[in-house]
Amino acid sequence: MYTESKTLEDTVILARQSRDKVERLISDFKPFIASIIQKRLGRYLEYGTDDELSIGLIAFNEAINAYDINKGKFLSFARLVITNRLIDYFRKQSKFKTLSLNTDEDCDDASIDLLDKKAVQQYAFDADIEDKKFEIIEYTKILKEWGISFTDLVKVSPRHENLRNEYINTAKLIAGNPELLNDVIRNKRLPIKELQKIIPLHRKKIERGRIYIIAMIVAIMNNFSFLDISCKGR
Question: What are the tens digits of pLDDT across the range 5-27?
């Protein structure tokens, strides 16, 4: 799994160097793969029994090999690859019932294209929500490594927007400064003395926001989008 110092996207690229790393990555994301396919089929599936899950594993492996880090999030790309491979599979198995635009009994390419578009559109409709759910699960796991529970984060989250933005800006500053970031990762704490030299926040305010700031740093490092940090704190 990806660590607190690397994003998932970085881990995917690095995994290509070793088949063992690819296999571990696929194994880690089996629940993610199953959730996509089960949601599409509306029923529970079991690895080793259902062919659809095997298709999903192959598609996820394909996504790892084909992913371009400059073209968005890996999970969104993997979802698209898995969905497309499922569509291909169902077409071959005649499990997808196509609706022809014509009154003829023959099924032409236009009806198949329409089916593909509708399937992908329906998939895309839910994909963002599913990504956010999975991100929250992963975020919770990583926060635990820092001694922070998601419940703790909710409790300490600033109610006032101005204070929240100050903390987010502090997290961005640290995440963008290799020296400060390495200090945080190494010691699992905020370098308060160093921070006071470069930001206009009182020591007590920084200490009160310690958990929230660290949690935001973790979110930024792992490129979690559900918190929408990129458009906040400006």
Answer: 468 888 999 999 999 999 999 99
Q: Packing angle between helix 30-41 and helix 19-28, nearest 10 degrees?
A: 50
Residue 200 in tokens = 């206009």
Whole-number Å distance between alpha carbons of 51 and 49: 7
Q: What angle in degrees, to the nearest 10, is found between the helix axes of 30-41 and 51-66?
A: 120
- Here the tokens at position 144 are 């635990």
d(CA 65, CA 13): 8
Number of Cβ within 10 Å of residue 165's Cβ equals 14
Q: pTM of the predicted model, to two decimals?
A: 0.51
97: number of Cβ within 10 Å: 8
C-alpha to C-alpha distance for 161 and 165, rounded to whole angstroms: 6
